[in-house]
Amino acid sequence: MGSQSNALGLSGAAVPLLRDLVHERLGLHYDGRHDALADRLAPLVVERGFSSFLDYYYLLKYDEDAGIEWGRVMDALSVPETYFWREVDQIRAVVDVIVPSLVHAHPGMPIRIWSVPCATGEEPLTIAMLLDQAGWFQRAPIEIHASDASGAAIGKGLAGRYRERSFRSLPPALRDRYFTTSGDLWSVDPALHRRVISWSVVNLKCEGEVTVRAHSQIVFCRNVFIYFSESGIRQVVSLFSRLMPVPGYLCVGASESLLKLTTTFELEEIGGAFVYVKRRKEPV
């Protein structure tokens, strides 16, 4: 436990209250991990000049300017673990099988792919690389949208500059094709970067924000549900169930399962990868 969180009075009801509020607003689940939550939020409490977590709770719960502070909370709690080519088999299945099937079924119709949470952009740019390698941008109208709850992460995605650790799985030939180096940073090729046509801050627990993008035929929502409670996952998946078209393809992380949480999406093996597929309208 950090010294700052110790000094701010970890005991008592303050941190559990914050835990419940974070779960309600952001979906992040900190049961049994009060120390981790306190250590992440302590610097924000100190910067505000507060002497306790309870003061910070009241700010987030009741202050009319709390919206700005929630953005800082999300930046503090976000887990920026991502890299190019992560779980690439699923992306290959989308590019090699799902996109062709959608193009064949609806010629000329825009295909929308939404990456959420996109972190600092490695996932949507990996999708763009594979689509570009397969020549799909020249054959069909494809839109890639990127969203994350962390404004700081979106800012880095917009900048399009990455350190060496982001490339630990990317084939060197593709790194050389799509990136240029300057010092210890690699900048993405502007033409590839433009393939991601929007970058936005979206909280998966906010229905209004999700609704803007969830009408996409393909949604990558990977490696976020491991931080959510079952009720939080159910809420997000229910929203996807209602808003995504038929057919709709939902890609989650390899360690995540929705089998007990939805009847609208069915798990299918497609192109050697597992994808949740919506093939009928959600029951009324």
Any overview of this molecule?
There is one protein chain. The chain has 284 residues and is an alpha/beta fold. It folds into 2 domains: 3-77, Chemotaxis receptor methyltransferase CheR, N-terminal domain (Chemotaxis Receptor Methyltransferase Cher, domain 1, Orthogonal Bundle), CATH 1.10.155; 88-278, Rossmann fold (3-Layer(aba) Sandwich), CATH 3.40.50.150. 44% of the residues lie in helices and 17% in strands. It is built from 12 helices and 10 strands.
Q: Percentage of helical residues? A: 40-55%
Domain count, please report it. 2
Low-pLDDT residue intervals, each spanning 5 or more residues: none
Radius of gyration: 20 Å
Oligomer: single chain
Present the secondary structure layout.
Blueprint: H1 3-7, H2 14-26, H3 34-47, H4 53-62, H5 66-77, H6 88-105, E1 111-115, H7 122-133, E2 142-148, H8 151-159, E3 161-162, H9 172-178, E4 179-182, E5 185-188, H10 190-193, E6 196-201, H11 207-213, E7 218-220, H12 230-243, E8 248-251, E9 265-270, E10 273-278
Parallel strand pairs: 1-2, 1-7, 2-6, 7-8
Antiparallel strand pairs: 3-5, 4-5, 8-10, 9-10
Helix pairs in contact: 2-4, 3-5, 4-5, 6-7
